[in-house]
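Quick note —
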Amino acid sequence: MRICTWNILLGLRLSKVLEVVRTRPDFHGLDLFAIQEASVHDGRPDVEAIAEAMGGEYECFQATAQLFRGREQGNALIWRRGLFETAPEVVSLSDLPDVRLTRVERTLLRAIPPQRRIAVRAESAALRVYVMHLDVIGFAHKLEQFRAIVNDIANRAPARLTLVAGDLNTFGPPRPRLWRKIRGTAHDAGLIELTHGLRRTHWTAQKLDAIYAAGEVPSKHRAWTLTVRASDHLPVFAELQ
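Predicted structure written out below.
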């Protein structure tokens, strides 16, 4: 199984995204495509254009989280036809209980209000997938958004394989301990980061994107990125053998 996650920056270079999807072999035979910052162009959701570029054997779903500078901004999922029996659903990452914040973070979030965030969830008995996009600002705030996904996994019937993919927005100096609480939360939930060995997923040379797996995770898997300039993020791939 091969999965890709890619923040496409509101589809501002959608024509380049479509070119990459059509021409790069990494996208050929893809099973799952998790997309963040999908928007709408010429009255058509970005995910529909991307799925069409991938071929006729795919289905797709897109949900809007918020309007950002007048543009729809949301998460989307493309999947190989037949993987899921029911339509995907939306999990809110914004309507969370009160979070204990430091004074600095509380002040920062007052100055820059949190953005609306969602995850898209698609599932069957064999497979459950989450497309996540965490907020830009805040450490504790971001951690609670990730925990909302972990809690949703725990409150549902187990699937043989669970995948969580998307943009964590883990901006900051590349210190090993900076995002240890997110790593610890993932570890405690039995989530294995398939993209652990990657060092750069964004044009700033930072690692912002990740793919996690839980359940019947094959012992052999690999992850890689493509160096293309269709967004500020790079497409991130993981393949489970």
